[in-house]
Amino acid sequence: MKRTSILILLFLFVPAISLLHAGACEGASTTLGSSDTAAARTAEFICNASEEISTDELPGADTLHARGNGNVTGGDTLHINTREVDPTVVHDLGLESSSTQLSLSSDSRSRQQPDSMFWFIKRKPLALGATLAFSIPIVLLEYQWWWRKDYLYKQHGFLYQNDGGFDNYSLGVDKCGHFFTSYVYFHTFYDLMKWADYSEATAVWTALAVPAAHAISIELMDGYAKYGFSSYDLAANALGMGYAFAQVKVPALRNFNFKWSYYPTGAYSRPDQDWGLSHDYSGHIYWMSVNMKNVLPEGAARYWPKFLNLAVGYGASNVSYGDEPTNARHKFAFSLDYNLSSFDIANDTWAMVVRLLDKFHYPAPGLRYISGEKVEAKPFILN
To answer: What is the pTM of this model?
Structure first.
């Protein structure tokens, strides 16, 4: 249990550092806006950065990003380039323009948004607590599922195990699982931080820290168990985080999202010393869902329903616990997919929940191909 305790502390430490940094900086963040005009704009202040910004991209933009240190008060000055700032924007914000400076007026301070609440709890402490509270239970559950017997009865030195990536016992389905887990963790914690009104930088760093700590702690614990430390697993986790991060920075990538579906096979009920779902790989399919409404040419896109995507999936057959490995087969699928995120949801809490639910692929009509077999049309693709 000594090793487990150390790794739990590791899992807690990395996200905690990110969030403690957030606590030091977020007091300097505030938002000003005008909700009674079509030309509404906001000015966002983020700590520990340069005070100088450029507004060359202001025309058509919705946000003025200014950077400074400390809380914004009347009389504070934003040093920005105003040569392309529409005078109506300056007026709507309650700001006064003077050559290359915009000064906050007392009227604009009255429109600063306070720390939002969720029921009777402030969102920021709630999000911070939820992030830290996630760490201990997940490590303890994984200890029970995968490592307990090895740690108690089969003590051994640190093992390395490179299983061949996609040329392994599950034909790479386990690597898809590592990719997807880190991908989902990034988006979940990024959304949680943004929901709590943390800054963009805090949201990104937290979303990177949590899955990174999770992935590293799992591989270190695997190193002391029968599985062994796998650089392939860690690389798959890094790719999942990397793609999720790229989606935040490159809007076009948000039209290509990863999802997961699972339906138990007969292997799920077999006696298994580990957690059945995680080793019932034949029941897993990992999907890339394409937002056709956004990627089709404009003429065709107007006829495509926004709630419907197309998805391609990868899995394998006969790769679950107890299956005969010589019968392992690649599995491919092509299916309709439901775009839950396309629905306009006014409540930001429910919108966050729906985005999480949209990380799963639900049964839909499609085609399935298992290597060595014929293509099958399915009313609902399950596994």
So the answer is: 0.71
How far apart are the two ends of the chain, measured CA to CA in Å?
Answer: 37
**Better-predicted residue by pLDDT, 231 or 155:** 231
Do residues 207 and 193 make contact, with C-beta atoms less than 8 angstroms apart? yes
Cα distance between residue 207 and residue 211, in whole Å: 7
Q: Pull the structure tokens for residue 216.
A: 């590293």
CB atoms within 10 A of CB 187: 23
- Please write the tens of the pLDDT for every residue from 58-81: 343 333 443 333 333 333 344 444
- The sign of the CA dihedral 71, 76, 79, 83 is positive
**Burial state string for 119-139 with b = 16 or more CB within 10 A and e = fewer than 16:** eeeebbebbbeebeebbeebb
Looking up tokens 């990627």 gives 295
Cβ contacts of 175 within 8 Å, gap of 6 or more: 165, 166, 168, 232, 233, 236
User: Is residue 225 classed exposed, middle or buried when 0-12, 13-18 and 19+ CB atoms within 10 A define those classes?
Assistant: buried
2-16, 102-116, 188-202, 324-338: segment of lowest average pLDDT? 102-116
Rounded distance, CA 75 to CA 106, Å? 8
* Token pair recorded at residue 110: 């009255």
The pLDDT score that the predictor gives to residue 67 is 35
pLDDT tens profile 297-316: 999 999 999 999 999 999 99
**For the stretch 252-281, what's the b/e string if a residue is b when 16 or more beta carbons lie within 10 angstroms of its beta carbon?**
eeeeebbbbbbeebebbeeebebebeebbb
- H or E element, residue 13: helix 2-25
Put residue 75 in one of left, alpha, beta given phi > 0 → left and psi -120 to 50 → alpha.
left
Q: How many Å separate Cα 135 from the centre of its chain?
A: 16
The mean per-residue pLDDT over the stretch 22-28 comes to 44
What confidence tens digit (pLDDT) does each residue in 320-356 have? Answer: 877 777 789 999 999 999 999 999 999 999 999 999 9
